[in-house]
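Q&A log
Question type: sequence-to-structure
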Amino acid sequence: MNKILNVIKVTVLIFGLSIANIYAQETEKVIGTVGGEKLGDDGIVICVLGTQACMPVQIDKTMTVKYNGKDTKLTDLPFALFLEAELNGNKITTLKIDERKTVICFAEHKDGDDEKLTALLKGITGVKSFKLYRKSNQVLIEYNPKQIAYSELEAKVKNAGFILE
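Response status: OK
Response body:
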């Protein structure tokens, strides 16, 4: 009888630990943009907002998101497209994109850059709002893509003398 009770106890313990392990593998939320590096058909790079890190992540090759009104594979998303991804380990489980936001990363930060960038962005038609991330040399920009394309926005920032990563 004691052997049976011990087997039951061990089984319950193993089952409990298995369930705890499943819940311990929490999903992590990552906010940033699609990086420019290509990782084949099973991965993308996310440039993480608020850090200077770009992280390679694995994807489901069949996963798609709506981009420009069409179902688009994750590997076909354009550079600098804003996204929110949930990861389980190093693999994307869910992904949301926002075509009205981007993050621009700067190679360096000099005295006076904050004021210069603020004045520049306030003067660009189509820029709705922005937030500077001084520690990571980034700016999160919300804009109207019908008024200004990302490439135009990036060009205006470069033409103002900023060096981008």
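Response note: The longest strand covers residues 91-98.
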